[in-house]
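Lecture 7, part B: from sequences to assemblies.

Below are the input chains for today's worked example.
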Amino acid sequence: MLQPHRPPARSVFGSLVLIAVIVGAAAAAFAYTAGWFSPRRLTPDKMVDAFAPPAGAPLGHRKNHAKGICFTGIFEANGAGSTLSQAQVFTRGQYPALGRFNLATDNPNAPDATVRVRGLGLRISTPDGQQWRTAMIDAPFFAVSTPQAFYDLLLASASKDPNAMKTFAGAHPEIAAFGAWAKSARWTGSYAEERFNSLDSFIFVDNSGADHAVRWSLLPAAQPVSVSPDDLAKRGPDFLEQEITERVRGGPQRWTMVVSVANPGDPTADPSKAWPDDRRTVEVGTLTVQQIEAEVDGPCRDINFDPTVLPSGIRTSDDPFPAARSSAYAKSYDRRTAEAADYPRTTTGAKP
Amino acid sequence: MNGVRTRFTVLQRLLHWLMAVCILAMLFIGVGMVSTVMPKYLTLVSIHKPLGIAILVLALFRLVVRIVYGAPSLPVDLPEPMKLAAHLSHYAFYVLMIGMPLLGWGMLSAAAYPVALFGGVHLPAILPQSDSLHTLFWDAHFYLAFAFFALILLHVAAALFHALIRRDGVFEAMAPVSTHDRVAPAE
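Predicted structure of the full complex, as structure tokens:
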């Protein structure tokens, strides 16, 4: 046994102070790391909150791209992508695909003709147990250069200050190109006629270990037909979902996946800057959509199309958006799954 | 040294201090990563998952070592409530060290996220996809992380109390190096 040597009272007080200081400092460091002393830190909570309409976010739904419909199908790789990436998904073969056509809105009941930006979330699974998830939109480039600018854009567009958007555009001139696209781009009557783009840059790693900065797109096999928004409005609030359901029932719909390879010096960190059209492109395969299912009981409902879920052979680049999207999507996922009772499934036999 | 051991074995002390570093890093990475949308988010998440699994493996091994080697007995003159607190805190530590990684793994499984470790190595799902299980596990993982950190603060305070005020050898039992000069052996 050890014989305790009791210290004098003054030393006890000093020791207690020392213990309090050590414990207090550790707690403060923890709180600092958690951002409790940093009200300006851009957190995923803030980002997701910024999407909410004034009445509050609809419970149980995605906090952005809230309206959507599930699809399942096949991604058939032609093998050409193997020159760019060692991921199994580019080896010639067929791989199951799960996805979601969606509209970039915080309102799951938004009339289809009122939403400018359309999107596609996709998950391709390969036998090696890996997955490639991507969430793409029909715009050819993003609205702003950085996640902070995107957050500021959300605040400005929700602001009651009539000059908020003007001030924002002054600080972020890149928004003008997106505004011009939104005004002039063709509207179509079908998800099947849309081209979807990754916008963000990623790095493909080939078998020799060499890196290739890339972006990718899905090019529709269906011929796009331009329809005015007024005519689209007459087709009913859910015409896109009805149309794609009918269309796929009549036959599978296809998109060609095209990978664009950056030239040295191309802006990889800024998705608001499109690369020149003459960049090398490689057709890597075909997405075939074979079945459409409503989201409420569908297989895409509880899938987070997190663009940083990547197989080995693909990784993120210096583009800051995939990280911001990953953290915000996770927050949206955590919230909506906790709110699932407010978006009840319609069949009791659905997956738990 | 024969008879009653006054210190934990070298293996136990090694495990304690190694895991102390891992767990503190884990908790700071955890609260840091969920508070940012910056690119470091991905870096932190990519450390958090394999480190969590490493802690799980170490904790299971440490539990076996603890069962085999036991622990030095507490000083006889330690008040009963403090003895009870010491014993309960050890149970709580083992529950958290093993439980937290399993909750995290389960939470990812219930959300159908791949559980990625290093270089394309994936762990299988341990739960079916389920929004209710995801919420349950997410909440538990989140709130227990704060409880875990609070328990560590308490543990540090108690260890320092033993080292600086009671000077009863309890701190020395787990000290990384021998601090024999500060503790006089009984005659």
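Note for the exam: DSSP finds five helices and two strands in chain B. Keep this in mind when comparing with the next example.
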